[in-house]
Amino acid sequence: MFRVSRRDPRRGCSNVLCLTGRNTTVPAALTIGSATFVLVEAINCYLANVFWTTSHDPRKLMFTLLGRGFDLYVGIIWWSYGAVLSCGIFGALQRNIRTGTLWALLGFAGLLDIILEECMLIYGGIYTYYGHQPLVFNVFPCWWAFCNVSSIFVGISITYRYRHLLEGWRSCLIPPILPLCYAGPQVLAALPTIYAIQADYSPIITQLCGIVTCVLAVVQVGVTMDTVLARDPTDMNQVGRDTQSQLAHQKLF
């Protein structure tokens, strides 16, 4: 099992896997639960015009949604990406890193998403984006990276906030928590772009919708930092919870 501890500022311990004598099942549940991201991603593919190729081999079929088949490789891709990002963010929060470093980590995750998808799209034949997609960098619509990272961040932040309640057998709650927290924020931020993709607006309006989506995704991350993690998203040097945010949350709840 993983042995996880918070950073002790007096001792300078920043190792996520410090020996504390207390086991946690949360990282393992995050790794397993990340497979559920593909269920929401399949729905988003309909809303935002993404088509995954299929082999038409029943042995490779993972599931069918609204008449469209999704092969096993779709689950492997999204499970891998979701597990790495989820455990990476959770581990960073366990290390109690500065807010500025957390922003940088999320930015790096978005850049990694762009690079990975560019490689898969250039390779060809795996999947394709169609419709009036805005903010296309080369072949990948970059607004997706903002939505992917921000929505996964919401679920991981909630898991981290209530990690003391999700130990042991209660870790079974994490797999349903992740897709539910992923679906709402993803569609919320992507909504302006979803309308633009399905419509036939002018190029300027389409690009503006993509920019609005990116802004909403960033705001979503900031609100999550403040309301869930009790961090001031504008204080880049802050480590841990913000005292004023904690007091406000105590009065609110």
TrEMBL record:
<feature type="transmembrane region" description="Helical">
    <location>
        <begin position="29"/>
        <end position="52"/>
    </location>
</feature>
<feature type="transmembrane region" description="Helical">
    <location>
        <begin position="105"/>
        <end position="130"/>
    </location>
</feature>
<keyword id="KW-0472">Membrane</keyword>
<keyword id="KW-0812">Transmembrane</keyword>
<feature type="transmembrane region" description="Helical">
    <location>
        <begin position="172"/>
        <end position="198"/>
    </location>
</feature>
<protein>
    <submittedName>
        <fullName>Uncharacterized protein</fullName>
    </submittedName>
</protein>
<feature type="transmembrane region" description="Helical">
    <location>
        <begin position="204"/>
        <end position="223"/>
    </location>
</feature>
<feature type="transmembrane region" description="Helical">
    <location>
        <begin position="136"/>
        <end position="160"/>
    </location>
</feature>
<feature type="transmembrane region" description="Helical">
    <location>
        <begin position="72"/>
        <end position="93"/>
    </location>
</feature>
<keyword id="KW-1133">Transmembrane helix</keyword>
